[in-house]
Design brief:
It is found in: Nucleus. The chain is mostly beta strands. The protein has no helices and 28 strands.
């Protein structure tokens, strides 16, 4: 748990509901910034807030990092998804989607983390007819993919002082998409109801090249995919978090044989990390005990997941899960720092931001 010598959890109460959290990619190893999507229930306002993280030897607790609000951007609607990427033309980029169907790119100055520019789609013609379920931003920050409950899959890219959009697919609401993740510069995975997954290639006509219908054990599997992650060196394997504590992997080489990592299958087998919704999942670089090159290509690398019942855990195939946090409230979102993988930022439902710091040695968390 977080009170052990290997784990430290610092809580930062907020005056607003925290919907999502993301590390920003710094230009200096000494800079650490966090972007949050917040919602004020008193006046129904939403915003992206950017905080700096620093240590001060003069503070009451010098081992606790200080969190300072540096800038914010008011959103026209409640934020449904937030993603960040590396610098694009000397700026850090954040992609924001809303429940009103809009998509926005924020260009953040990497030095003073002020928001220099915001680009959005035409408010009169939103990209989605209803809420945008999820967005994902490509490495480099020049293009994102958005999916919605309306069944649309859109590609959004930076143009000359504007956002250019292309509708890759529209099934007119027959299938709703709830999650999306890039696998390469041209390929991405989407997820939706019934634990359905789809693999897309934007270079192909229509985009869709493969799909998994979630019919485990020759039966229909109910549930919703909430989050997808794809390892940059293993794009053929998607890890998925969804309803009822279900975490599984989908390997394009064996498409109809999902690998259950957590949850109970229809045959009654499996080990469950939790019993509620898995809101976010991410490959845990810090927990990888050996290099990718020396690991079997069929073994699923460790992942981290957060849940509605307040669990933050590391899940590794064939091993008992490692519970990092067990909160009294939901953990809505988390993000592992790509520059310092031992550190994790998470959004706690009781209007707090949590910073979890693990021991730098990967083996210490097991």
């Amino acid at each position: 748990m977080a009170d052990s010598g290997d784990l430290q959890l610092f809580r930062y109460p907020q005056s607003k509901f925290v919907d999502a959290v993301r590390w920003l990619h710094p230009v200096s190893a000494f800079d650490r910034f966090i972007a949050t999507a917040v919602h004020d229930t008193d006046d129904a306002s939403s915003a992206v807030e950017i905080h700096s993280l620093s240590f001060s030897p003069e503070s009451r607790n010098p081992n606790k990092p200080l969190l300072h609000l540096r800038s914010n951007w008011p959103s026209p609607s409640r934020i449904s998804a937030l993603r960040t990427s590396e610098t694009h033309q000397k700026h850090v980029v954040a992609a924001v989607s809303t429940f009103a169907g809009s998509v926005h790119f924020l260009f953040v100055d990497p030095v003073d983390v002020s928001i220099d520019l915001e680009l959005s789609n035409d408010e009169c013609q939103p990209m989605h007819n209803g809420p945008v379920s999820a967005v994902d931003l490509q490495s480099g920050g020049h293009e994102c993919v958005s999916v919605g409950e309306d069944g649309r899959v859109n590609l959004v890219s930076v143009g000359e002082g504007r956002l250019d959009s292309q509708q890759l697919h529209d099934n007119r609401g027959l299938i709703s998409y709830t999650a999306v993740r890039w696998g390469s510069q041209a390929e991405f995975a989407t997820g939706g109801f019934g634990f359905g997954l789809q693999w897309w290639d934007k270079r192909k006509p229509g985009g869709l090249v493969s799909q998994f219908k979630g019919n485990w054990d020759q039966k229909n599997t109910t549930g919703i995919v909430h989050s997808i992650d794809i390892h940059p060196s293993r794009k053929h394997i998607s890890v998925v978090g969804g309803s009822s504590g279900t975490v599984f992997a989908w390997d394009l080489r064996w498409q109809q044989q999902p690998i259950l990592l957590s949850g109970v299958s229809l045959s009654g087998t499996g080990r469950s990390t939790c019993e509620s919704e898995i809101w976010e999942i991410q490959y845990d670089i810090h927990a990888q005990t050996s290099s990718i090159s020396s690991t079997s290509s069929t073994k699923i690398l460790p992942v981290m997941a957060c849940s509605e019942d307040g669990i933050l855990a590391v899940i590794e195939q064939g091993k008992p899960h490692t519970e990092l946090l067990a909160e009294d409230c939901a953990i809505n979102s988390f993000n592992i720092d790509p520059q310092n993988p031992a550190d994790v930022v998470c959004a706690l439902e009781w209007e707090s931001i949590g910073i979890l710091m693990r021991a730098k040695e990967s083996a210490s968390v097991y």
